[in-house]
Amino acid sequence: xxxxxxxxxxxxxxxxxxxxxxxxxxxxxxxxxxxxxxxxxxxxxxxxxxxxxxxxxxxxxxxxxxxxxxxxxxxxxxxxxxxxxxxxxxxxxxxxxxxxxxxxxxxxxxxxxxxxxxxxxxxxxxxxx
Length: 129
Prior knowledge:
This protein is mostly beta strands. The chain has one domain: Jelly Rolls. Helices cover about 0% and strands about 40% of the residues. The protein has no helices and eleven strands. The strands form three sheets. A four-stranded antiparallel sheet has the order 4-11-6-9, with no helix packed on it. A four-stranded antiparallel sheet has the order 5-10-7-8, with no helix packed on it. It is globular, with a radius of gyration of 16 Å. The model has no long low-confidence stretch (mean pLDDT about 80).
C-alpha cells in the first residue's frame, strides 16, 4: 500500500489528515485489496453536517488546504442527487445513500462544488481533509 501525499512538503502541519479505503470481495474470500492511503499534511479536517434543499446547492470547501472531500448522504435517502461543477452542466449522478470521495488538486484549489437534489436531503455529512 502506497502513501500519496496530496500536499506540498513545505507546508507546516497543524494537523495531518489521512484517508484509506479497503476493498474486499466476499465472493472470492480474499483479503482486502490494499489501496493507497491519501495524506494531507496540512489538513483543515473539517467535519460538518449539512442539509441540501431541492434544486441546486452550492457547497463551499476550505480550498486553502483541503485536498479530499468525503460527502456522505444519510441512510435511507431516496432523493436523486447529481454532482455538479456549475448549475448548468450535466453532472454525475450520485448514489443517494453511498459516500462519494473527491480528490482536489493542490495547484488550483476548488472553492465550491454543487449538488442538485430532486428533494430536500437532511443530514448529509461533509468531511474535508
